[in-house]
Design brief:
With 232 residues, this protein is an all-alpha fold. The chain is 73% helix and 0% strand. The protein has 13 helices and no strands. The protein has helices at residues 2-15, 19-31, 35-47, 55-67, 71-83, 91-103, 107-119, 127-139, 143-155, 163-175, 179-191, 199-211, 215-226. Helix 11 runs antiparallel to helix 12 (199-211) and helix 12 packs across helix 13 (215-226). The mean pLDDT is 94.
């Protein structure tokens, strides 16, 4: 119970950006065997919070926590290997650590491992595995996972081609504010794929993607404006 109070105090200090004091408490809690605190100490070194940034030390703490089954540290190890920070860049190891976190139910890890399966990065390219992990991440609300899974259904990669499913998935992504999802949904309305063609809705979703900085959407809206087809 005392440890729970200390964890609450450490979190308060963290939120107040009193990183040095928070780190002291997390160090103590990590020494008491608290895995989340062990991972958090790694995170402080990883990001240089209240201490000089030190990827080597971050890896040391993450590794201990990951070996004990703490999933966020597995994901962060994957990130460091993927970017070559504190270690030599190693996509295969990044994939292994992402997968370890993905199996534990971490949505961002599930998305990243799916992306690696889709691109064959750090692993053998496998579209059906990509679809599986995108679906797992989407179930947990990851907007880009809805979009990428939609793209697999649209193209029939790793899944049976299905425009209706692609449309539903793009719509989910678009509603969750994914610019790519909004653009793809607009394209489905434009072409009448998986839905009835609707130029107004196509323009509406393309405009939303454009406002979020989606380059292709911006180019289309700009071209339509120049041609006098729409008025912003």
């Amino acid at each position: 119970m005392a440890n729970e109070a200390l964890k609450a105090e450490a979190l308060e200090l963290f939120n107040a950006k009193s990183y040095e004091k928070a780190l002291e408490l997390y160090h103590y809690l990590a020494g008491q065997g608290d895995l989340a605190s062990l991972a958090t100490v790694g995170y402080f070194y990883h990001n240089g919070l209240g201490v000089a940034q030190d990827y080597i030390k971050a890896i040391e703490y993450y590794q201990k926590a990951s070996n004990a089954g703490e999933h966020s540290s597995s994901y962060n190890l994957g990130l460091l290997y993927f970017r070559g920070l504190g270690v030599e860049k190693d996509s295969q190891k990044a994939h292994e650590y992402y997968l370890k976190a993905a199996v534990k139910g971490m949505p961002q890890a599930q998305f990243d491992v799916a992306l690696m399966f889709e691109n064959g990065e750090g692993c053998r390219q496998n579209y059906s595995e990509a679809a599986f992990w995108y679906e797992e991440a989407a179930k947990r609300g990851n907007a880009e996972a809805f979009n990428n899974l939609g793209a697999l259904f649209k193209e029939g990669r790793g899944v049976e081609q299905d425009d209706k499913k692609a449309y539903i998935l793009f719509k989910q992504a678009a509603m969750k504010n994914s610019p790519q999802g909004q653009f793809n949904l607009g394209a489905m309305y434009d072409q009448g794929l998986g839905c009835e063609a609707n130029q107004e809705k196509a323009i509406e979703w393309c405009r939303k993607a454009s406002f979020q900085g989606h380059q292709k959407a911006k180019d289309i809206m700009s071209r339509m404006q120049q041609n006098g087809q729409i008025v912003f």
